[in-house]
Amino acid sequence: MATEVILPKLGQTMEEGTIVEWLKEEGEEVQRGEVLFTVESDKATLEVESPARGYLRQILVPAGEAVSVLATVGIVTRTLDEDISGFGEGIVPVPPSMAGPAGGATGPAAQAEAAREGRIFASPRARMRARENEVELSLIEGTGPHGRIVERDVLAFIEGQPKATPMARKVAVELGVDLRTVSGSGAGGRIVHADVEAAATQALPSPVPVPARAPREVKLPAAEVAATEPLKGLRGIIAERMATSAQTTARVTLFTEVDATAFVDVRTRLKAAVSQEWGFAPGYNDLLGLIVARTLRELSYMNARLSGGEIQRLAHVNLGMAVDTERGLLVPVIRDADGLGLRAFGQRFREIVGRAREGKSLPDDLSGGTFTITNLGMFDVDAFTPIINLPEAAILGVGRIQPKPVVRDGEVVVAQTMILSLAFDHRVVDGAPAARFLQRIKQLVENPYLLLG
Fold first, then answer.
1. What CATH code would you report for 3-89?
2. Longest dimension (CA), the chain
3. What CATH fold (topology level) applies to the domain 97-203?
4. Does the pTM exceed 0.90?
5. Which helix (H) or strand (E) segment is 36 a member of?
6. Mean pLDDT in consecutive groups of 10 residues from the start of the chain, 453 residues
7. Could you give the residue numbers annotated as active site?
8. DSSP state of 85
């Protein structure tokens, strides 16, 4: 009996993944539970095991291609001569362009795809009809085997839709407009593309400025380019998320200089006192992470996000800690960080960071954060303006600790100083409350014994 190998949903936010490497070749014997291939999803590389014992008869999705979750990527059979002609037919990888909007996009197409958890199983003829009629497959409910979309599903969907020109359907998909809400001005009430554009404009909460034309791309001679790197995979994800954050948030950054003398002293004392018992030396990131988590619990308006036109204050403090890895920037999340002691926080921090740097993050290690800390002090950076990690409302940047002359009680003394930068979304939080939050963090850094209260 043949068994389909599917790409499982390996995390709450996973919608598609890229096959990184097949660890077995076609015709090779496999055991149930043996790792068949690795897949890159969001920011983690994960292993997928064989669902059955037998032979890997066919690889449907080669390494390097992206597919939606629950798509069939291979076939395992009990014997090498078993008939597999009826398996995998019409199930093809979904290119990113057909997988729907990313980064929390809204609109009918994105909502329909989210409801289907990224599943787009369709026969070749169904895909052909959909392309011919400018129909988004994620809007169609399949009636074929295992919920596969077949040609009759596409034709039935088209018949039940309002009359519209192919261009209008295409524009509706691009702008996320439901044609059932649009009044047609064409012949016989047919919807034309101008009707769709008018409907999309009316739906916008405020005018969005659009540049008259895109900047002209200057191509360098081949001799001037030492190397190129495709903007895809993790690098592409980072680029997309950072650009979205910069374009959609009303970012304001506050800076404050902190006297970190007591902070450094506490860390030095803890390192000497508990390193052997705990199995690790408490670090500045542990202490600062705990301070920020407790402050988020105290001033909960910063533990928030903007969603669906409303500001949501979140029930859990899930602290993201930005980490530099060989694969790029990752943000492992310490869940319910405000309820942890320093030892438990440090242990959790080292576990998730270790998995991130080894490329073995668990599916939920990199999702669900409510606030992020990013520390560049180890690179001799004094201060910087971090980009908010959406959908969070703020991020704290940490600069290096260094000795500087300061005035204390009317005298000039040498103190350990550090600059903190709080970038926040002014749509969610006003300047004064954000400043109070940063001020409270400064107070706890300068007087870390207050954490005992």
1. 2.40.50.100
2. 89
3. Dihydrolipoamide Transferase (4.10.320)
4. no
5. strand 35-41
6. 84 75 90 88 76 90 82 89 67 40 36 42 70 72 72 80 75 67 81 78 52 60 77 69 81 95 95 95 95 96 88 93 86 94 95 88 82 95 93 95 91 95 95 96 94 71
7. 426
8. T
